[in-house]
Amino acid sequence: MEGTLNAVGYGLAAIGPGIGVGLIFAAYIQGVARQPEARSVLQPIAFLGFALAEALALFGLVLAFVL
Amino acid sequence: MLAEEGEGYTPPGSGDFKLPPLVDNLEWFTKPYLMALVSVGILVALFYFAARRPQLVPSRLQFAGEGIYGFVRRDLARDIIGSNDFLKFLPLIFSLFIFIALNNVFGIIPFIQFPTMSLIGFPIALTLIVWITYNWVGMRRQGVVGYFKNMMFPPGVPSWVYILLAPLELVSTVFVRPLTLSLRLFANMFAGHLLLIVFILGGEYMLVEGEGVVKVLSIGAFAMGIVMTFFELLVQLLQAYIFALLTALYIAGAMSEEH
C-alpha cells in the first residue's frame, strides 16, 4: 500500500462539515414543508449556512494537498 | 486520458490536470485556456441569436434563452438583491452563471471532457471580480467607515461579544469569503473529474490487463463511470447556481445597512 495519511486525515476532517451540511438542509426542508411560502426567505439563509459549513471541508481538502 | 499503459497501474492524480501547451512556443496556451475562449464565443453567439428578433410566439432558441435569463433574473437576482437595485448587477450575475455552467459542463461533453474550472486560476479570476464588486458596492453605499463598522459591529449584540465578533466578521467577510468561493468551485470540479478518471481508467486497466473474472468485472467500473457522469452533470450545474447565488448574496449583504 502506498499513499499518504493526508487522505485519511481529510476523510476524518470531512465528517464534521458533512454532519453540519446535513443538519442545515434538514432544517431547511422541514421549514419549507411546514411553511411553503417561506421558501424564498429560507433559501438564501440555508445556502449561506451551507457555504460556511462547507468552507471547513474545503480547508481540509486544501491542507490534504498542501501538507 | 494521460495514464501510461503497460507497466502496472498508475492511479490518476493531480498530474493529470497539467496539460501540455497546444502551440509549442506558448507555455500558457493550453486546452482549458482555449476552452474558456471558445465558451465565450459560444455563449455570445447563442444569446445573440436568441435575442436578435424577439417574437410574440417565441422560437425554440428564444424560448430557451429567455428561460435561462428569466430564471437568473427572478430566482437569483431579484429575490435576493431586491427589486430596487438588482438590475445593475444582473449582467454580472447572469454572465457568471452561464460562463461557469458551460465551462463546467465541458467536463462531460465527449472529446472535450475537461472542466475548465478544475484549474484553480480560473475560479480565482472570477472570484476576484466578485470580491472587488461587493466590497466596492458596500463602500460606495455605506461609506468606507460605515461599511466596516456595519460589518464588524452589527447592532443588537452585548458589547463584550464584540471582542470576539469584530475580528471574526472582518476575517470572514474579507478573507474567507473569496477563498471559499473559488475553492468550492475548484474543488468540486477537480474532485469530480478525478472521480471520472478513476472509474474509466480503472475499468480500462481491468479490461486490458486483467484475466478471466477481472475482465468481466470491468463492466461494473464502466457502469459506475456512466452513472457518475450523470451525477457530475448535476453537480456542475449546481455549482454554477451556487456561485451565482453567493455572488448575489454577498452583493445584497454589502448593500443592506443592517446585518
**Number of DSSP-assigned strands of chain A:** 0
Bin the strand percentage of chain B: under 5%
Largest sheet of chain A: none
Give the end-to-end Cα distance of chain A, rounded to a whole number of Å. 20 Å
Number of domain modules of chain B: 1
| Average pLDDT taken over every residue of chain B | 88
List the helices and strands and how they pair.
The complex is a heterodimer of chains A (67) and B (259).
Chain A: H1 6-13, H2 15-34, H3 39-66
Chain B: H1 31-51, H2 60-81, H3 86-105, H4 121-142, H5 144-152, H6 162-209, H7 213-255
How would you sum up this structure, described in words?
The complex is a heterodimer of chains A (67) and B (259). The two termini of chain A are 20 Å apart. With 67 residues, chain A is mainly alpha-helical. Chain A has helices spanning 6-13, 15-34, 39-66. Chain A is built from 3 helices and no strands. Chain B has one domain (14-255). Chain B is built from 7 helices and no strands. The longest helix of chain B is centred in the last third of the chain and has 48 residues, at 162-209. Chain B is mainly α and 259 residues long. In chain B, helix 1 packs across helix 2 (60-81) and helix 4 (121-142) crosses helix 5. At the A-B interface, helix 3 of A face helix 6 and helix 7 of B.
Which short descriptors sum up this protein?
heterodimer; A: mainly alpha; 3 helices; 84% helix; elongated; B: 259 residues; mainly alpha; 7 helices; globular
Short synopsis of the structure:
The complex is a heterodimer of chains A (67) and B (259). Chain A has 67 residues and is an all-alpha fold. Chain A is built from three helices and no strands.
